[in-house]
Structures are given as C-alpha cells and as structure tokens.
Amino acid sequence: MIYEHFEVRKDDGWKRIQVLPDLDWDTATPEQEEAYWRLPLFIGRDYDLFAILGGVRNRMNVRPISPCRGIPDDVSDEVRDAWRAAQHYPEVHSPSWLSLHELLTFDWDPPLVRLEPIADQDAREARPEMVTYRDAVADTRFVTEGLTQLQAFVDDPHDLRMVFWFDS
To answer: Residue 168: helix, strand or coil by DSSP?
Structure first.
C-alpha cells in the first residue's frame, strides 16, 4: 500500500493539504468504501503506479519518475509526524516525494510490455500485452483525472508535491 500526503509551498514553508475526503472506515458502508476507492486521487494498491512513482514493485521493469529520495528535509510538521509514526512498523519502506511538475511532465505514453495471465491456464503462463505507462495505471484514474485535480491547488506545479512511502 502507498501512503501519500500532499503539500503546497507557502511563504513560511510546506503545508499539508487534504485532497481526499475524510472517511470513518469503522462505520463506512461497503458502498461508501467502494466510492472512496474509485476517487482519482486514491492510489491504494496500484503496483504499476508504485513502480512508476519510485521503482517499487517494479514487475514491468519500468523507468520510474525518480528513484526513491527519502523524506524531504523541509517537509511539513504534519507529514514529518506521520512518517515518524509509520517508521515504527517494519513493513514500511521507500519514502520519497515528487513535485506536481514532475508528475505532469513525465512522459506517460511510451510503450511497455505487461505480462497478462491467460485465463484458465497456469498462472506462470502469460501473454505479453503492449501498453503505455498511462494505460498501465488507468484503473486508478490518478493520471487521467487526479493530476488535473491537483493543478487546481496551485498556480505553479513546482509548489505542490506528493510525499509518500509504502508498506509490504
């Protein structure tokens, strides 16, 4: 799973912003949970997107936007606290960050080969499928809709970043 936090640069430093609605997972109905999972900025467990963002779970051997860089030195207090709390769990790994500018200027259209299992056959057998980076992550709608939503928060895409880490 990915744990993503979004920050905008203000005069006095980076500030965390809320881009997803709050949801009480203890009381949410299955319909509310399903609707949340379909939000364009909810990444969840899109392993192909993990590979593109930071080279994590890179089963397609894609070129990531950037290798994982760690937590930024100037991260907001809220995100720093969340990272410190997450570090208590041994399955947490690969912290990084990307600017909205990097996400927008990344070439999402080169072809790559994804191996798709053939239905009703041994899972070790698969047929190659040609897709683009954009196609590989289309199920989450992060690229096709989420990045557009993020642009509404800033005039300059250098002033918004996603700080994230993963668990196994």
So the answer is: coil
* Residue 44 · residue 20 · CB < 8 Å: no
Helix, strand or coil, per DSSP, at residue 91: coil
132 bridge partner residues? 111
> What Å distances lie between residue 31 and 36, 109, 116, 135, CA to CA?
9, 33, 29, 26
Beta bridge partners of 16: 7
The label of the residue with tokens 């990915």 reads 2
Measured in degrees and rounded to the nearest 5, phi and psi for residue 81 equal -65, -40
Note whether 95 and 165 are within 8 A (CB).
Answer: yes
**Triad 106, 110, 112: Cα angle to 5°:** 120
Residues 167/4, Cβ–Cβ less than 8 Å: no
* pLDDT one-digit tens code per residue, 54-93: 988 877 788 899 999 999 999 999 999 999 999 999 999 9
